[in-house]
Amino acid sequence: MEISVIGAGYVGLITAAGLAEKGHNVLVIDIQKEKVDMINAGKSPLYEEGLEEILRKNSGKRLKATTDGEKSILDTDVTFICVQTPADFEGAVDLRPIKRVAENVGKTLKKKKTYHVVVVKSTVPPSTTEKTVTPILEENSGKKAGRDFGVVMSPEFLREGIAIKDFLNPDRVIIGATEEKAYKTVEEIYRGFNCPIYRTDPRTAEMIKYASNIFLATKISFINDIGNICKKLDIDTYKVAEGLSMDKRISPHFLNAGLGWGGSCFPKDIRGLVHKAKELGYEPKLVDGVIKINEEQPKIMVRLGKKRLGTLEGKKAAVLGLAFKPNTDDIRDSQALPVIEYLLKEDACVVVYDPKAMENAKKTINGRITFAKTAQEALKDADIAFITTAWEEFRELDYSGMKKPIIVDGRNLLRHRKDIIYEGLCW
Ligand code: UGA
């Protein structure tokens, strides 16, 4: 099928590359010329395992990048909208980027003679596709949705770091539409995928995306809540999680207790839905609790360090890990950031290290912190170390350069070590 994808950001580029890999002809549209040139040269503007290989294989053949949105939409049968939906200062989802795109797509649809399907892939609050995107498309095209063109909401479930694998082997594809022709068109795109396809309406599809992310974050906050109780009772939370997940109704995934969740998706989506619910007059108590537990974990971590040393004032504290999870350089809403903030409030001398995220951290973190070139440099003469990201390499580090090897482990990496003074965050 002939497909256009608007936005060569994270979701757009993975979607475009993945669909090309599956045999479709894909035009990916972006306003940034440098990005477009890179993609056409088979190079990836962002790092994601396996992405560059797919770009090299498909660029110039089944995959082309362009800045010409209008021609791309006219030349294709389906357009995926993959623009960002950032949060505004209130935590609400900023719909301005998707509204602008819908307006342009609508204007192009006006000139189109044949049926076209517009697929919203960006994460948007429930009812946005029907109440915001569709009316803008209709108004600007002068055409009727469901008759002259189709509108579908199909959320993405890609994890950073393994997004290509997730795209090519999804657990399910959700298709939220209102008419048969639109369902059929998008189902045809996913024909080569070995997974169930779930038909629903657009607002249910939108809610499935939010509910999925919130459920996963809830599992993490749940095990952290249990873990905080376990710690007081001298019980190993990881053993509890193991026993717990032997019940087939409870899957073992996302039950790793520790410093909690961060990243570009969970925090934004959770706050976005809470905001929407409150706007509608509903207080989502469980979800509020999920956020509160997550906000508490970095405080608990710093408190444990303070208890160990008596005071953190003037003490050298090494923070190992800045990325929100291992194997990425992304520090957006990383739980390491509040740990650093609280250590600074305690007047500790903070030295940080991360194998991949140092450059991003230097651009983002202001304050009295030192960026070490290596983990060993961060640990040298440190009074205490905090493990904030689950990088494998931290497991086998030499901690003997510290004044005393006191480690507060937020990611369950070091409990096997007999040569350190160990403190698990909630185990
Ligand atoms: C998440 C979802 O897992 C994807 O399904 C979804 O598509 C994506 O958001 C999105 O909305 O785009 P991602 O943000 O890449 O993916 O991160 P995850 O791998 O889910 O990890 C999220 C956070 O939870 C990380 O900070 C991680 O350290 C933490 N985590 C994860 C735990 O603390 N414990 C666990 O057991 C698992």
What can you tell me about this protein's structure?
- The structure is a single chain.
- The protein contains 15 helices and 14 strands.
- Helix 9 packs across helix 11 and helix 12 crosses helix 13.
- The mean pLDDT is 97.
- Helix content is 42%, strand content 14%.
- It is an alpha/beta fold.
- The strands form three sheets. Strands 3-2-1-4-5-6 form a six-stranded parallel beta sheet, sandwiched between helices. The chain has a six-stranded parallel beta sheet with strand order 11-10-9-12-13-14. It has a two-stranded parallel sheet with strand order 7-8.
- It folds into two domains: 201 residues, NAD(P)-binding Rossmann-like Domain (Rossmann fold, 3-Layer(aba) Sandwich); 135 residues, Rossmann fold (3-Layer(aba) Sandwich), CATH 3.40.50.720.
- It binds uridine-5'-diphosphate-glucuronic acid.
